[in-house]
Amino acid sequence: MSTVFNIIFKCHSFSERTIFTWHRFNRTEIWREAMSGAIKKATGLTGLNVAKNPHHTLTALYNKILRAVAKMPQDAAYRRYTEQIVSERAKIVASTPTVREVEDKINCGQVEELIIQAENELTLARKMLGWKPWEPLVKQAPATQWSWPPAKIHELK
């Protein structure tokens, strides 16, 4: 491969900060991130890998969810509640610089779990668009639909 695309990655440790410096085309760019220890190497959850760019991933997923629910009627309960939760989480992700703070403020698991939750919510939102639960029923529900136990239903007939 061409040396143009080779990146020399060096790590220098200074007290409570880790500064990553990389050299490319004879110029130096410095990327700093306040760290509370070492870089996260594992989630501790079997089969769940560490997210490479969680802020970008969550922002993209939350925006897709908001676009999907925007296609639903304003008075749809699913739209109201989903929009509220997702927009709150999107604001937290946008305003919080570190992954640890995002996890603490949202308080629903690790950021990798938040990504899975957002992916599942996006899938559900798209299915809800097809199901259209806000429309009236095609036919009237039976009177004993919510009766329990089933034995009583048969006795009524």
UniProtKB/TrEMBL annotation:
This is AAEL004829-PA. GO terms for biological process: respiratory electron transport chain. GO terms for cellular component: mitochondrial inner membrane. The keyword rRNA-binding does not apply. Accessory subunit of the mitochondrial membrane respiratory chain NADH dehydrogenase (Complex I), that is believed not to be involved in catalysis. Complex I functions in the transfer of electrons from NADH to the respiratory chain. The immediate electron acceptor for the enzyme is believed to be ubiquinone. Keywords: Electron transport, Membrane, Mitochondrion, Mitochondrion inner membrane, Respiratory chain, Transport. InterPro entries: NDUFA5. The keyword Signal does not apply. Its main location: mitochondrion. It comes from Aedes aegypti. Complex I is composed of 45 different subunits. Belongs to the complex I NDUFA5 subunit family. It is found in: Mitochondrion inner membrane. It is a peripheral membrane protein.
